[in-house]
Design goal:
By secondary structure, the chain is an alpha/beta fold. The protein is built from 15 helices and 19 strands. An 8-stranded parallel sheet has the order 9-8-7-3-2-1-11-10. The protein has a 6-stranded antiparallel sheet with strand order 12-13-14-19-16-17. The chain has a 3-stranded antiparallel sheet with strand order 4-6-5, with no helix packed on it. Strand 13 and strand 14 (479-486) form a beta hairpin. It is globular and about 75 Å long. The structure holds alpha-D-glucopyranose. Residues 66, 69, 106, 170, 206-207, 269, 330-331 line the site of alpha-D-glucopyranose (GLC).
Length: 535
Amino acid sequence: MISGSFSNLAWWQRGVVYQIYPRSFQDSNGDGIGDLPGIARRLDYLTWLGIDAIWLSPIFPSPMKDFGYDISNFLDIDPIFGTLADFDALVEDVHSRNLKIILDFVPNHTSDQHPWFQEARRDRRNPRRDWYIWRDPAPDGGPPNNWLSEFGGSAWEYDEATGQYYYHAFLKEQPDLNWRNPEVVRTMHDVLRFWFDRGVDGFRIDVLHHLIEDAQFRDNPLNPEFALGMRPSHALLRVHTVDQPEIQGIITGLRKVADEYPERVLIGEIHLPIERLVTYYGVELSGIHLPFNFNLIGAPWSAAIVREIIATYEAALPRGAWPNWVVGSHDTGRIASRVGANGARLAQMLLLTLRGTPTMYYGEELGMADVPIPAELVQDPFEKNVPGIGVGRDPSRTPMRWTGHNYGDFTTGRPWLPIGQNLAICNVESEAADPNSMLSLTRRLLRLRREEPALCIGDYQGLACDDQSITYLRSREGRRLLVMLNFSEGPHRLPLPAEMPKARLRLSSEANRKLQPVQDSIELHGVEGVVLEAA
Ligand code: GLC
């Protein structure tokens, strides 16, 4: 349990967030799609694993064009996932286990089936018209400017009936809300309150940097580095469509709503360079508690680059800002496929020993890899719009693997996405029985974090090292832990730093490594990571 030296920090600083993609976690009714009663059934597992909070990707009513990120009612649960009663029961169950629950807030857009948009498109004078972003056609009848949709093609869709275009940063079925309209702002604030009142502990906010666009609708400039094979939206630099100055006022407003309740957290999905990302903490930290730090996701996997990312991020953080780390999500390829099975073990060590709140994507604790999806089974609209360049997100959204049989016991029906290879080895049941599995490593790391405030909330100090490895110290109240990660495939001898000439091994990524005393230097095996304490 949390000891005294943890107590002055908020739960979202001490804890580990676990992302659940609800469609793929546990099905309870045999329709092949995960649901809330399914999640409830797996809370024992999550408690056993040792995480602190679950974040659920959207569970609200939706035509599912973008699998829940196209919401047609912000104040209910989609029948695919269950009912409001199921949700309330889940919240109670989560809280009774001392866990927290975070929902996904999608403020940038609604579904085109949302009654607000249905009204808005009825006629130009409809009071809801201005809730969305409408423009007259260009003189040639084409779109009002050159803005592109993240999911391919123009970001403008022509509405025959009313003779104007509406803006959609994502699918045409996801029209953008107009955050310059005060009624939109008020209504969306009330959406947050609705769920906070039901006991939700926080929100992950979808594409926060997208909320406001240039008021003059100026064209975006061409991207001089654009090349074939890149996603089509990268043909332009998003100077006028993301990260506009007015966003700061909006995040302060969202934060004020969260602050009406005790100990709530806001986590922002923001894809921007580090120096812009950190501005989302807000002036004097009056903004988002945790602007998601995705820097490890896109980065080439080498010790030198990872070390540089950590140093740059740590240096850019505003005073008092709490860091956070992510290595995988429902929008990117799985870490085990990006950096290999051994690399993923090191990544797990990094995620759980760096300073700041880790967010772990479901299945990462098993080392789940991307599952190749045959063309006829593709579900992701992004892949359907822009085929063939590897933007598809289905491979990292495949069902959680509970056992080695029957679609991993994810469903009694047919799963909405294939289960993939290696099921017999890569599943909770088998890995729980194997002390050297990724699951066992993850549990050992999570336990160590609980035992050692230095690791969980202590200071971070990067230490000098070579091109093959990373070494850092975590310390708190006189307690110091040294983390050493060998990125190279071969054995690698590393000197202990002057600060800690004698040490004891606390944890190795290899379960069978003897926890012996170490003096002056330690030889790490290929792609091994260790945590040491001063002897
Ligand atoms: C975010 C979500 C992604 C979704 C997009 C549009 O990036 O993570 O899954 O498609 O926003 O809502």
